[in-house]
Each structure stands twice: as structure tokens, then as C-alpha cells.
């Protein structure tokens, strides 16, 4: 096994929407990598209630949280590829060259490769790491996929068409909101939605602490803060209205809300939130790009030889 993630392999019979869109009785899906994103996507798909998992295969070495999902586990990257039509690459960026060098001989035109690897561009996958004519999509989810309330953005590769996009969107629909867009949006999406989850948690914490300061018990304040954010978010999403319109609906002249909003504006909340997304996005560029570093390849009788260099810090840490 290449890399430091486990490999999850499962075959699901999606008896409702996914089956109809794929027009096939079985949808074979493989995951290479067993981190938080792979877990979140897998849990979101399986929690849709659209059908049971089939052909369960257990392994003795895998994180216990995958056991509750009832997925089959293997330690062979190539087994995942040969047994699947849709293959999710969910390993760390610096492991992508090593993993793809292993699976490239098994990748065919029938496969759809979906990369969740941070910072690895579609062009890098298509032109340097995968066999010619490979069908590639790039996906960036976020952690709330685990509770089917994620925000996912994907981009089509040069050889992926509307059908592949529709299949992916249908498959991931149980995970939350699924949007398609140009690849240049994905890094911004990471700052907005990937890191944005933590920004919302901080705001929830601050709301609750404000209530605690005014005499409310901590546990109650935290529950109410969470529900307030959940309710406001659903209203914003489902109404389709601009946030400013909804905010205006809550404000009455001289009322409590406008005084509270004034305090937030004085504290610089708006600028701080904008700056947080910008800072997270810029840090993303700084953190991810060096990990990809130099990747060279050459084709030898249809097989790919890859030479790559990973971060010195990774070497010092001894990998995973």
C-alpha cells in the first residue's frame, strides 16, 4: 500500500436517484485515503438511506469509525481501481504521485477519477500523473458532509462531460449542497467553506459566552447558539434572499437588534470575516503548493515513471 491512508472499497446499490441517473443497477465506488474528507463523503452517501451496501469485506487494520459505516476495506490501491468505476483520491497532496504511479496501469477510459487532494490541479493529474484520456474531476468538500449538511464544489476536467458531472452531483446530493464551477473557485471555496466552518464555531462560542455573561447557564447558551445559527442558515439558504434583506427584517427602529449590530460593526466583525476568508485562502496557497513541488514523468511502453520531491519537513517527520 502506498501512502499513509487506508483504502476503503465498497459497492453500493443505490435504488433511487443515483441508480436512475447512472442507469445501472450497481454503482461501484472506491476511496483511496481514509481521512476526514473521505469519511465525511462516505458517511453522507451511506446515510441517504437509498440502499444497503453489498459485498462487505473486513480488514483488521483500519480506523474504528469506518466499521460503523459497514464498508469493505482493503490494503491494495489497485484493488480499489479494478473493482470500482468511480475512484476518489483522498490522500495528502505529497502522496498523489506515489499513489498514481501505482494505480496508473490499472486506470482505463471507463474510470472516473475524482480528486479531493488539496492543491493538485486537474492539469497536473491529466498531463503528468494519469494515463492519456483519463476522465478527471476535482472536488472540494467540507466536514459537515458527515451530517449531510456539507458544501461541496467540483470542477470538470477536460475530458469530463455533463454526464460525469450529473452523476457526481447526484451521488453527493445526500452530503449537502453540491455546486459546479471553474477550478479557480476551489481554493477560495476552501477559505470560505472549509475554514469557514471553524469561523462559524468561533462566532457560536462568542454568542454563547455573551449569554453566559448575562446570566444564562453555559450548556443552555451553547445549545441555543447552535440552534440560532442552524435556523438562520436554513432560512438564508431556503429563502434565496440576500443576507442584508433578512437582517433588515429582524431590525426595528430603536430596537435591541440594531443596537447589537452596531456593536458588531464597531468591533469590526464584517472586515474581520472578510479578512479571515482572504487569509485562509492565501495560507492555502502557501501551504499546499510546496507540497506538490517538482513532478517529472516519462512514458515507457504505456507505464509511467514518476520522479518527485516532497517537502523536507515531511522527510524529517518520517512521513505519516
TrEMBL record:
Family annotation (InterPro entries): 6-PGluconate_DH-like_C_sf (IPR008927), NAD(P)-bd_dom_sf (IPR036291), P5C_Rdtase_cat_N (IPR028939), P5CR-like_CS (IPR053790), P5CR_dimer (IPR029036), Pyrroline-COOH_reductase (IPR000304)
Keyword Cytoplasm attached: yes
Residue numbers binding NADPH: 77
GO molecular function ontology, one term from the record: pyrroline-5-carboxylate reductase activity
Pathway it works in: Amino-acid biosynthesis; L-proline biosynthesis; L-proline from L-glutamate 5-semialdehyde: step 1/1
Keyword field: Amino-acid biosynthesis, Cytoplasm, NADP, Oxidoreductase, Proline biosynthesis
Pyrroline-5-carboxylate reductase dimerisation domain ranges (all copies): 185-283
Domain of life according to the entry: Eukaryota
EC number, as in UniProt: 1.5.1.2
Reaction catalysed by this enzyme: L-proline + NADP(+) = (S)-1-pyrroline-5-carboxylate + NADPH + 2 H(+); L-proline + NAD(+) = (S)-1-pyrroline-5-carboxylate + NADH + 2 H(+)
Alphabetical list of Gene3D superfamilies matching this protein: NAD(P)-binding Rossmann-like Domain, ProC C-terminal domain-like
Domain Pyrroline-5-carboxylate reductase catalytic N-terminal: 29-119
A GO BP entry: L-proline biosynthetic process
Top EC category: oxidoreductase
Residues involved in NADP(+) binding: 32-37, 90-93
Function comment: Oxidoreductase that catalyzes the last step in proline biosynthesis, which corresponds to the reduction of pyrroline-5-carboxylate (P5C) to L-proline using NAD(P)H. Proline is synthesized from either glutamate or ornithine; both are converted to P5C, and then to proline via pyrroline-5-carboxylate reductases (PYCRs). PYCR3 is exclusively linked to the biosynthesis of proline from ornithine.
Assembly behavior: Homodecamer; composed of 5 homodimers.
UniProt cross-references to HAMAP family, sorted A to Z: P5C_reductase
Protein family (similarity comment): Belongs to the pyrroline-5-carboxylate reductase family.
NCBIfam families assigned: proC
Protein name from the UniProt record: Pyrroline-5-carboxylate reductase
Origin species: Scleropages formosus
